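Severity: low
Component: inverse-folding endpoint
Summary: output formatting inconsistent between runs
Steps to reproduce: submit the following structure tokens with default settings.
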């Protein structure tokens, strides 16, 4: 399995937050980068494609564009949304959107990119979960459920893709100072961090280091795993 700098990575959620950091760091590390995002925010050296991961037609259209990329070897599914509410106070529309973007969107993108990588017989897919899954955090039941689905999907999908030379893994960070947690009370974030083995917030760079490991040839035997940033 060849994974070399100079190859191209597709990154969802590349217009902001963690996805944007990953896209920029991958570019700086010598990879070609194609960003997928609902709203296009230009990023030097990164090609951008408009894509709503929760919309099957939008993902299919992005896939047609990616088919033209001969060097595509990886997908990083960084697009996601969060909401911290007790189950009783979570609107139905919020529940549906969390599942649609986080779980169904990940599956749409894996289906799309997985076909492209399988044809080449090599590649890497990195999905995103959260430390809220193993910690079963009060107020994050719906969000954690959407990400728990991503973990189970990724483990099973890893088995499907193994015969095609494609690895599938999950990175599960704790709280990171991005717009994703901007509206979450500080006390709630502190409680989550205190339950981690490493009791501090993660940084986008912490996450990039793990993603970059999974993109490296040295990690070609790692698949079906969930890597927790901060430890549980």
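Observed output (run 2 of 3):
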């Amino acid at each position: 399995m060849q994974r070399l700098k100079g190859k191209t990575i597709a990154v969802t959620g590349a217009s902001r937050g963690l996805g944007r950091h990953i896209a920029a760091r991958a570019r700086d590390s010598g990879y070609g980068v194609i960003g997928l995002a609902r709203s296009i925010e230009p990023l030097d050296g990164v090609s951008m494609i408009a894509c709503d991961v929760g919309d099957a037609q939008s993902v299919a259209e992005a896939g047609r564009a990616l088919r033209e990329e001969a060097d595509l070897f990886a997908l990083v599914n960084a697009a996601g949304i969060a909401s911290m509410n007790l189950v009783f106070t979570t609107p139905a529309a919020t529940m549906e959107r969390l599942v649609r973007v986080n779980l169904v969107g990940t599956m749409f993108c894996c289906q799309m990119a997985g076909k492209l990588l399988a044809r080449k017989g090599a590649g890497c897919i990195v999905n995103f979960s959260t430390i809220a899954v193993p910690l079963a955090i009060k107020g994050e039941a719906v969000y954690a459920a959407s990400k728990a689905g991503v973990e189970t999907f990724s483990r099973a999908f890893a088995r499907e893709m193994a015969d095609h030379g494609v690895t599938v893994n999950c990175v599960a960070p704790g709280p990171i100072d991005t717009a994703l947690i901007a509206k979450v009370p500080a006390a709630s974030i502190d409680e989550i961090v205190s339950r981690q083995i490493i009791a501090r917030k993660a940084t986008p760079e912490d996450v990039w280091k793990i993603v970059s490991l999974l993109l490296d040839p040295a990690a070609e035997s790692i698949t079906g795993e969930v890597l927790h940033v901060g430890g549980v």
